[in-house]
Amino acid sequence: MVGIKTVNEHISNGKRFDDCFENQQLALDLCVHSSDLSFLARDFKVGQVWVDLLFDEFFHQGDLQSEQGLPLSMLCDRNPDVTNIPKG
Question: pTM for the complete prediction?
Answer without folding.
Answer: 0.54
